[in-house]
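User: These chains co-purify. Model them together.
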Amino acid sequence: MENVLDVQNLSIEFPTETGVVRAVKNVSFQIKKGESLGIVGESGSGKSTVAFGLFNSVPDPGRISSGSVRFLDGRNFLKVNTEERRRFYWEHISMVFQASQNTLNPLLRIRRQVDDIAEAHQFNKKKLRQKAQSLFEMMYLDTDRVMNAYPHELSGGMKQRVSIGLALLLDPEIVVLDEPTTALDVISQGSVLKILNGIRKELNISLLFITHDISVISEVVDSVMVMYAGQVIERGPVNQVMSSPTHPYTLGLIRSIPPLVGDVKNTKGISGSAVQLDLLPKGCPFYSRCDMRMTKCSEIPPPWVTLDNNVSVACHLAKNEGGDKNDRTQEHFKTI
Amino acid sequence: MKWINRIIMAILTVFVVASLTFFLVRLMPGSPVQVMYLELIQKGIPANQAMNQVNIILNVIPNEPLFQQYIHWLGQIIHGDMGQSIQQTGVPVIRLIFNALPWTLITVAIGLLISFFIGVLLGVLSAFVRERWTSSLIDNIGSVAHAIPQFVTAVALLYIFSVLVHWFPSSGAYSIEVFPGFNGPFIMSFLYHMALPVFTYVLTGFGAWTLQMKASTVSVLKEDFMMAARLRGLKQNTIMGYLGSNSILPLFTGLMLSLGAMFGGSVFIEGTYAFPGIGNLLATAINTRDYPVMQGCFILTTATIIFANLIADFAYTKLDPRITD
Amino acid sequence: MRLVWKVLKRRPSRLVGVAFLLLFTLMAIFGNLIYSHALNVDPNNIYAAPSWKHILGTDYAGRDVWEQIVRGSTNVLWVAALAACFTMALGTIIGLAAGYLGRVVDAILMRITDLFLTIPSVALLLILAVTLGMSNMVVLALLLSLTSWGGLARAIRSMVLSFRERSFVEVSRGLGLGRWHILLHDILPNLMPFVWTHLMLAITGAIYGEVGLFFLGVVPFKANNWGVMMNFATGSSGAMYSTQSFMFLAAPILAIVLLQTGIVLCVDAVNELADPRLRSSH
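Assistant: Joint model of the three components:
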């Protein structure tokens, strides 16, 4: 199947007083039509910056230093001029934001905000309103009330669903969802994810989830990509990564999920504090916090290794051949 | 219901202010009532007649108990009688005020609008400029302009534009050759005369708006919905509309509050330019200790401001959907 | 001290501001020591042009203008500082009380605050000045603060209301610490950066009101003040309309402008010094 999105070697820098910080380093990935990918990492891992990079709209003072972003049309989106970029947004790629509660203009009714989108992309206002209504209906919203409401008149979960509806308004090929459920309570989280899964199947669109909580998205994504300190350190089918994580960091992420049943004592955090991008070792970025570090880890950057379960990982431990490696991960699991 | 309450509160506030001025003037040592009464007696006017005259001018019968004086005075005020001027004998205070008020209202309103407009523009500019020194220059100009007292600006402008270069007249609201009314020459003459006062209001007023607008714009620019609007591919005009409406809105509450400061400033500005508005009236009354005029000016300007605030609050609920009822 | 210097040199405008402020403060402190004798009246030297003997020339009575500016600074700064302190005390106490002592106190105090905020403060100041009469500078400072505490009280109140809901206050409450302890140890320190910054603005407000009263000639007692100079220059002396006397008119104007500019340019430095969060962000 063709790639809806093809990102190659994307790097994003932030100049600071002490020097340039590379928030995203050589990130490459592809998403196929109808596929759903999750980018996982803790705060500061660069996962949200990647999302803004896709829009070629990195917040100030950051800038994209290298790489390419190609959608279906095949041209490098990073080279497209402002007006074309504006038209491209929302019609081909849209986004549901981290704090979607605040992404609606507080002074305008929802239908006005739908109209604004229609006007910007030269759609028929009446038709687009009907489209919005049917989307809101799919999301179990009281359509008439929502269309005539001001944002503050809606609850957090409702606003989130409105944002998702707006993101689907122009039938984009791909929707980026930046922590779409973090601000919601557990029940709304579940229903929002269920809705997203349904829509994805019905409309056959591609989704890109960005989250710090790997467990939340495990039900809705096909594959995951784990980021640490601006770099991808492991990626593969979600089942494989969840059941047998290879990189010690991924292992830590999964271990830190509290179980739904059982004792919370069994969960473990990752030792050490969050990464400081300007103080990275020459070798593996996770070196200082890794439980299984070796001497060469601080000096030699770990190479990419593709394992036989379709998982790729950047870790010196994964250098061994497939069978041997699996034993190691089994061992890790015994220690939990 | 809420608005009926608000209106009642406004009327009560005016009443409290009026009562305060009454007791302030009456209870001070050397009360003007006693002073005037004694003066009249000393001039050889019989006590009865003297008392009557004090009553006409100050709305108070001197030898009555204080509380009765107050009730009596209040009754007169409610009927629109604020006594007579001591200096301009026989002229009712209310007429002096109604002659003066329109001049002030027009100049203050125009000054406020222009300074608001300039301030908003500069504030947005300062929020948008990339170079830090430009934006900090705008901020500093804004805060310095705001901190310089109106009378200093007024005197400086008067000296430069009317004493040194004779571009603008130094006093009055229109020239003696024109006939007040709705006619071209009068309006032109009025505009000519009010240029310097309005300029002073603008120079001393725009700074505060610049600073407020900058702060407001900067905070709206950080809002998530601005980023969202951009990524939705909305047109630049629409996005600027989102930015503008959201950042100007908080300034509206300040707009009416600043009326108080501007009316206060009119004492200095109109005093300096001998512009026949309410500020000038108050300044003159204070210098000549014309108590009835002083009280009248004070009560009426306060009432004007209180009701302007009421209207502004009402308009604000129409502008901001987040505020209900 | 090192910190002060570090904060100041971050922006050139701050250095300029501090320089002006220091100049006037020195003038105010030492002015009366240098010019302890009475002002010289010299009828033969009316409206003299600036010279070495009279740096800024002389006025309509042949008195040295520079000397008057220096003498005036003592009065201007002393009253302004005093008034600003009164304003801070009044505004902070009323704001704290309204925000912390419950709904009834809050409602009453905020009514009063609103009243003071709507009344045009200059007009109120003038009426109070005329009716109460002012016998000395302390009374003048009190009057000035009486008409200018409203904005501060309101801001402090809303800050207290928001701090009350913050987690660090909740924690203290959970620990069983007393109301006063929380007010003094948790809430007040968080307000101080704002209070210090507002103090600077209160000084400019007080200078405005004070010099304005002298300018209008409402203050009954004699004092050396730039407002008095401006009053004479624009009024009785007729200096306004003769170009000869430019210095006599321009000197007090310049003095006020420079002083206010100095204070205003220092405000953001004070803000940064008082608020550790701002400092660390650089």
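Chain C has a mean pLDDT of 80.
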